[in-house]
Fold this sequence. Notes:
A: 115 residues, seven-stranded mixed sheet, globular, B: 115 residues, mainly beta, 12 strands, 0% helix
Amino acid sequence: GAVVSQHPSWVICKSGTSVKIECRSLDFQATTMFWYRQFPKQSLMLMATSNEGSKATYEQGVEKDKFLINHASLTLSTLTVTSAHPEDSSFYICSASSPSNQPQHFGDGTRLSIL
Amino acid sequence: AQSVTQLGSHVSVSEGALVLLRCNYSSSVPPYLFWYVQYPNQGLQLLLKYTTGATLVKGINGFEAEFKKSETSFHLTKPSAHMSDAAEYFCAVTSYGGATNKLIFGTGTLLAVQP
């Protein structure tokens, strides 16, 4: 089946640094990728939708300058948390889909801890 | 607009007992419905989906769900619970009439299986 790889799975860094998370579709071309944030014991909150080659569409309340999303190829999207602070600590999950490969397939998530 | 309501944030069953996780949806267009499972510190894995056609859909690991339009429900069941079924379960809805395939998630149900 479709496989989405997310890297890193766990990252701990100091406040003020920037962190990049990669999301790759390994066996299909993902025309659309999604980035979610999940707080402990809560559901997934959609942060943004990215289509290959175009700017990401951010959900209301999500700071586009804080969470930079790039979807430069059909197999890779990246989320960069800029100048991360402790309140950015969370579980970030990506998913990918294509018109011929619905529904969305999810990565294993990235646990981000900002000290 | 679409929404999903999962009744019961926590469900506990005995091993071998019936599993029933409830999901009700709201949608102004024909819905596409999904159940996902999430194990600790992992992404989401698709259990099953309803798009069109047969209203009783079978998924992986012995789970099934029935789409009932009159009740706007898509409850997840499994005849006999196994210890390995303990996880968080999310119901989700989308409408493929849109271009972005956004998934709207319920708040999740944590399933505990007692020996």
